[in-house]
Model the fold of this input.
Amino acid sequence: MEMQPEKMRAYYRFHAGIYDATRWSFLFGRKTLLYNLPVRTDIPQSLLEAGCGTGHNLRLLARRYPALHLTGVDVSADMLHKAAETTAPFAERVQLINGAYEKDAARKAPDHILFSYALTMFNPGWEQAIQTAWNDLPSGGHIGVVDFHDTPSRAFQWWMGQNHVALEGHLLPFLQSTFRTLRLDICPAWLGLWRYFMFVGVKT
Ligand SMILES: C[S@@+](CC[C@H](N)C(=O)[O-])C[C@H]1O[C@@H](n2cnc3c(N)ncnc32)[C@H](O)[C@@H]1O
Done:
C-alpha cells in the first residue's frame, strides 16, 4: 500500500505548478488566521508551519511579523522548491525542511505551530501530527489551524477524497480535547457546499 508521504509527493509533483494560481478560490481563511495568531512583536518569536506547501503563509507571516523566525516543513520537494522562491526575500529568517512532519528530537521548540489546509491531507496520521505539535510546543505555546471542516454533500466529500482530503468534521473534537481553545470560527463556503474552520489553541 502506498504510504501517505509518497501519495503527497506524487500528487504535488503536478499540483505544485498550478497551486498558487488556483487555491485562492477555495482555501479560505488563511490570512485571517495568520493575522489573528497571538504572535508577540516585542520579542523575537518562532513559528513552524507543518505542510507549508508553496510558502504562501510563510511569506505573509514574514511580512507581517518582522521579528518572527519561520520554519516550513513539507514532504513534497516540488512544493518546497516553490516555497524557496516565494520566501527568498526573507531567507535569513526562513528555514525550509523537506520531510514528513513527525517527532524530531533535534528540533527547537517553536512558540507557535501552524497547520493550514494540511491536516485534512494527513490520512492516516492527523492525530499523530496534532500530538507531535503538542509535544513540540512549550507550555503556553500556540497552535493555529485553518482547514476544511465538513460538508452536507456526499458527492463533494467523495470528490475531495479523490484529492486526498478527508472532509468529515474529525479534526475539531481532537484539537479541542488536546489544546485549550482561544478562538474558533466555523464558516460556510460556496453557499454552504462545505464549511471551513479557524482554530487557535494554547498548550496548558
Ligand atoms: C493543501 S497544501 C497546504 C499548503 C499551505 N499550508 C497552504 O496553506 O497553502 C498541503 C501541504 O501539506 C503537505 N503535507 C502533506 N502531508 C504531509 C506530511 N505528513 N508532512 C509534511 N507535509 C505534508 C503537502 O505536501 C502539501 O504541500
Q: What stands out?
A: Residues 37 and 66 are 14 Å apart (CA to CA). The mean pLDDT is 96.
